């Protein structure tokens, strides 16, 4: 019997299991609401993009996913200003998925089917304008731009978008099919290196697995950076700000203005809002200095 091989096999198995059970950076990163029983199990029972009271909510909000970081502060401030609204349900899934949920009327997550229609939907300006027939009121409330998230100290020594075309660089890339940021990042690739860079990243490296297309970039991209599965992830600036506020070991690399895109976020009241007065109150709150300061705290800009 070759004991060296047996010991090596045990070591490799233990190492693999250890990595599989490493959840130290897993969401939910927000503070969960108070409850009689907390049963979040990392990697198994964990639903970070649904918040609050799903039963008989007094207000339902669908936020574009990358705004998950504002939810705790924003809802706490809103409830203080409008104490009549205490049961609030929020989703922070990718905006394209939320749009499909609005149009189709329901969404299933795991074994849970949700058929709530939102009172308020927030997303990028283009998405809101494309769905204008669904809304009775829209308003701009903040802006954001793109940067590159890398592990702390940038071990791959990435300095520019063109570096993402290198054969050994692993990228966590938002899927343009349902994440608006994906299209904007592709535009930045094309500005930086033309069709050659775009094809390298979005065709060649997708085929080899070096470009990983996310389903929920605001969760997967930071996690792939934090767990060492990616060297770089194009994200919204607010996402780097938030991970640093959490004390997570990431850094951000700025993208020059001439290669960047500024996203304009809009909030919209649904024509079929189940709680129209609550929607009006929340949209009014979004225009206050209190709400604006919360967005600025997490890296969004107001002007």
Automatic annotation (TrEMBL):
InterPro entries associated with the record: ModA/WtpA (IPR050682)
Superkingdom, natural source: Bacteria
MF terms in GO: molybdate ion binding
GO BP: molybdate ion transport
Pfam families assigned: SBP_bac_11
Record-given protein name: ABC-type molybdate transport system substrate-binding protein
Source organism: Sphingobacterium yanglingense
